[in-house]
Amino acid sequence: MPHRDVPAELDEFLAAHEAELIEFRRDLHAHPELGYHEHRTTRRVALRLAAAGLRPVILPKGTGMLVDIGSAADGGPLVALRADLDALPVSDEKQVPYRSTVPNVCHACGHDVHTAVLVGAGLFLAGRADRGLLPGRVRLLFQPAEEVVEGALTAMGEGAITGVDRIFALHCDPRFEIGQIGLRTGPITGACDKIKVRVSGPGGHTARPHLTADLVYALGKIVTELPAALSRRVDPRSSLSLVWGQISAGLAPNAIPEEGFAAGTVRCLDEEAWYQAPDLLKGLVNSVASAYGVIAELDYVRGVPPAVNDGDSVRILGEAAELAIGPEAVALAPQSLGGEDVAWYLESIPGALARLGIRGPQTPTDLDIHQPNFDVDERAIGVGVRLMAASAVIALSEGSAPEEPVASTRGAA
Ligand SMILES: [Zn+2]
Ligand SMILES: [Zn+2]
């Protein structure tokens, strides 16, 4: 096997670079930037990779970049490895030397770790390419603005995955121990959309609801009927769920108002149900509203679809984890109802998102991402480098394997 030398090479690489990568992550952690404002982060990554002889191409908006390793002239497949650069509008409440220096901005989702991992994997793979040991090309895709679930679309608009055969990504996960990689074939994250319903009618006196449209009653019906009807109109396995978070109507106890609102989120684990959801909800809203003589408008704001992992890519991640981390590294990841914009890439090309275990002896039991005290056991960076680098090498060597003879298919009925 052409990649059997990878674990020993990774050991050697990390012995030389792990401390630097941890320092790199701490610097990003201390200087977090929100989506589409990742100018300093982009510069830091570009400078480090350029120092290793690579040629980063910064995206036109000034944040995010693509860095190709290997030469297109040599042929072979193109595999992308993706990291996200942005932080969250959350205050950093940890007492650590690398605590955020920016008020109310914090790397509470671990994107600083993803970025450091990809820098490490890039340096390692560039070293292999220099020695002629990369059977194809690798594209490092540092995307902006994941938290607003738009950065992937921005990067794709700039050709980030054009010509890419397969894409891998990882995400920090406090449910997994350090050294564990959570994998799952099929959907691994959920879809999350926002809806707002506005109902309107003529208004009137509460003594005479029959002469007008009883708007508050109708709004109440919409709020209770919609989630109930969904559970009977959609396959329960899709876990399509509508939960309201906001409702308002009226000013006086004896006046039927002219308008009212309700807003909530629609979450879903299934891609097909996600595509059907807006039309389905529109139909349900209108049928309830018309029964009570009010007019209803539904504003449906799309978030992201579920991220659907391709089986072959998950197998490659699993082989990479066993090869470069250890035989016990792979664990089954549950599907999460949270959204991840990696889903946009996975709609277009095969690939997979892996969960990177970050739980160490110091990790609080109830730690979750997006919390003000979120932090990782930094040994996760080395583990992430091993996973990403080995996955790329395996995917490239499989992709460049000699094809099966095609002659036998000719003439077959
Ligand atoms: Zn996040
Ligand atoms: Zn995230």
Structural commentary:
The protein is an alpha/beta fold and 413 residues long. The chain has helices spanning 6-30, 39-51, 111-130, 151-157, 215-233, 271-291, 311-324, 342-348, 379-399, and strands at 57-58, 65-69, 78-84, 137-143, 166-177, 181-183, 186-187, 191-200, 204-205, 241-249, 255-256, 259-268, 295-304, 308-309, 330-332, 351-359. The strands form four sheets. An eight-stranded mixed sheet has the order 1-2-4-3-5-16-6-15, sandwiched between helices. The protein has a four-stranded antiparallel sheet with strand order 10-12-8-13, covered by helices on one side. The chain is elongated, with a radius of gyration of 25 Å. The model is unreliable at 402-413 (pLDDT under 50). The site of one zinc ion has 4 residues, from loops.
